[in-house]
């Protein structure tokens, strides 16, 4: 069984959405767009509550993207970091 990697940025980002009950847009690889909140996640799936508070279990590999609805996200809004490391050839 795969261990749940709680230290990875994607897991921490989703945990922030859960903790802050952030409304998100979740797009599936089928092109379906869901709007609601994430209730929990584990190493394989997440539980998504749609606008009618109906729970939907979604496999991670079925997700194209997750983003805060209308730029919401509070202190945990999506951030992009670039690393510019130069390796010396010694």
Radius of gyration: 15 Å
Could you tell me the mean pLDDT? 83
Main sheet: strand order: 4-3-2-1-5
Structural class: mainly beta
Q: Could you say how many structural domains there are in total?
A: 1
Cα shape? globular
Q: How many strand elements?
A: 5
CATH names the topology as: SH3 type barrels
Instruction: Work out the helicity level.
Output: 10-25%
Low-confidence stretches: 75-88
Q: What does the main sheet amount to?
A: 5 strands, antiparallel
Number of helices: 1
**Beginning-to-end CA distance, first to last residue:** 41 Å
CATH architectural name: Roll
Q: Report the order of strands and helices.
A: HEEEEE
The fraction of residues assigned to DSSP E strands is 25-35%
Broad CATH class: Mainly Beta
How would you concisely characterize the structure shown here?
The protein is mainly beta and 90 residues long. The chain has 1 helix and 5 strands; from the N terminus they run H-E-E-E-E-E.
């Amino acid at each position: 069984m795969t261990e749940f990697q709680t230290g990875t940025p994607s897991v921490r980002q989703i945990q922030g959405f859960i903790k802050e009950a952030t409304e998100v847009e979740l797009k599936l690889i089928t092109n379906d767009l869901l709007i609601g909140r994430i209730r929990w996640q584990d190493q394989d799936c997440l539980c998504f509550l749609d606008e009618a508070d109906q729970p939907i279990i979604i496999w991670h590999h079925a997700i194209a993207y997750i983003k805060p609805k209308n730029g919401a996200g509070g202190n945990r809004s999506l951030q992009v970091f670039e690393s510019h490391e130069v390796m010396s050839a010694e």
